Amino acid sequence: MVKKSAEKEKARKPNMREAILFAAEELFSAKGFNAVTVRDIAQAAGANPGSVTYHFKTKDELLLEIYRRHCKPMNLRRAELLAAAKRVRDLQDRLEAIVRAYVLPAFSSGSDLAGGGARFTRLRAIMSAEGNEVTRRIIAQTFDDTSHAFIDAVHDSLPHIPRAEIVWRSHFLLGALYYTLVTPERVSRLSRGDSDGADAGDAIEQLVKATVASLQAPALDRATPSPRRSAPPTKSLAGDGHAPK
Amino acid sequence: MVKKSAEKEKARKPNMREAILFAAEELFSAKGFNAVTVRDIAQAAGANPGSVTYHFKTKDELLLEIYRRHCKPMNLRRAELLAAAKRVRDLQDRLEAIVRAYVLPAFSSGSDLAGGGARFTRLRAIMSAEGNEVTRRIIAQTFDDTSHAFIDAVHDSLPHIPRAEIVWRSHFLLGALYYTLVTPERVSRLSRGDSDGADAGDAIEQLVKATVASLQAPALDRATPSPRRSAPPTKSLAGDGHAPK
DNA sequence: ATATCATTTGTACTTTTGTACAAATGATAT
DNA sequence: ATATCATTTGTACAAAAGTACAAATGATAT
């Protein structure tokens, strides 16, 4: 092994494989999977359609590779932030930190290219909307652990809310997050220019604030007829048994 | 007179145009626009592909026709409910009624077939995610008025919150609504069976509750026009970069 | 019944799609 | 240089797409 040859190898070519991955991610996250052709991707990457087949046998495999690229780093980042958030003493601050730990990596994963986190999250949003069969499995497999960790952390901060309600509200958070990344211009339009929906900083702050408030809302709790009763909610709802499917 | 035979014939082939519309709506709202072929639609409707071309010149036109079907009734329903909500005296109740007026028609429009409202809303969610050019215009044209009316009504109930922030939170509501209709099974999965994400009644109640709470959250507070500061101490983590007011 | 109209059917045409594959190209090691 | 390997290119092909259109069918009015 010669060092120089290794260095040369790095600078040797602009790495077409990466260019294709990047172009595919951009196109998929903008137009969905079915609306983008292999030829579109090749052209955007400055490559030949045959090169796409060479590096990633099929279009499905290309999509999967994009997911493999992003899932682990994003979840790692979330786990780090969540661990830090759990150590926050003040309960209110802790809840906000937990939510932020969930939201922040979705907008910008540190390791990747500029805007990589937001782009990948938008991709997930679109794939989830399209009901893409290829990604549904990997999404559930990769992100459910993270989601459970997040939900449990919130539940620890708000033990009086049944876990199922926290699930609902976390679900709403993810939906809001997705929609903001998919249609930011709607915010700009409806606010008549007072807000920029594409401003990630603003979006994060607004999302965190709104989500913390929604999480803190009293439980729905249909079992109790009187709203002024401050009795603890029924424990049976938050059972820890796992239901077989 | 051959009324009898005519009736029998009609009962056998009850308006193919409607059947095609229904099949198309179902398929589009399940798999998106690009993943569904004209042949898929024809087969689901028990029709010949040529019949689709006959009734709706193109695939785009078919999609547009679906929108024309639903937009007006749904917005009418929303306007009715909103007008009624505005007359509620109690401020807290009024806010909840307003949110409910926005959410309810999205789950079930009264005039249509069973589940028609939810199906059409899911369709809008997917089209919005796919960035469908055909529907983008009609969506903005048809729903922006309703959205503005809703936002203004909320703003009247919460005058101390800047309108732009209400826009953000309404946007989150719509995102949460969309996502719940698109991926209800995720709620069931993460709640380990304690909740059924596909239960429209539960979804509505959870969504209304969470949204009311998020709307009532104190303003994020950049250069705010309202000098009132009786809210709990706000976090200064949020870096306020710009004030375009 | 016959004529007239609306609808349905069958088929075919033109593009576009994903993917395969042989040849061309370029780099590295010997 | 020559051989070996990885990559890129060009092309082709079978399948699937949207849509057009003539013929067949069915219903209604006269």
What attributes does this structure have?
globular, homodimer, mainly alpha, disordered N terminus, DNA-binding, Tetracycline Repressor, domain 2, disordered C terminus, 245 residues, Arc Repressor Mutant, subunit A, 2 domains
Give an account of the 3D structure.
The structure is a homodimer of 245-residue chains. Chain A has 245 residues and is mostly helical. Chain A has two domains: 14-57, Homeodomain-like (Arc Repressor Mutant, subunit A, Orthogonal Bundle), CATH 1.10.10; 70-218, Orthogonal Bundle (Tetracycline Repressor, domain 2). Chain A is built from eleven helices and no strands. Chain A has helices spanning 3-12, 16-31, 38-45, 49-55, 59-86, 91-107, 116-130, 133-157, 163-182, 184-190, 200-216. The longest helix of chain A has 28 residues, at 59-86. Residues 1-12 and 224-245 of chain A have low confidence and may be disordered. Chains A and B meet through α7, α8, α9, α10 and α11 of A and α7, α8, α9, α10 and α11 of B. Chain A binds a DNA duplex (30 and 30 nucleotides) through residues 5, 8-9, 12-13, 16, 37-39, 47-55, 57-59.
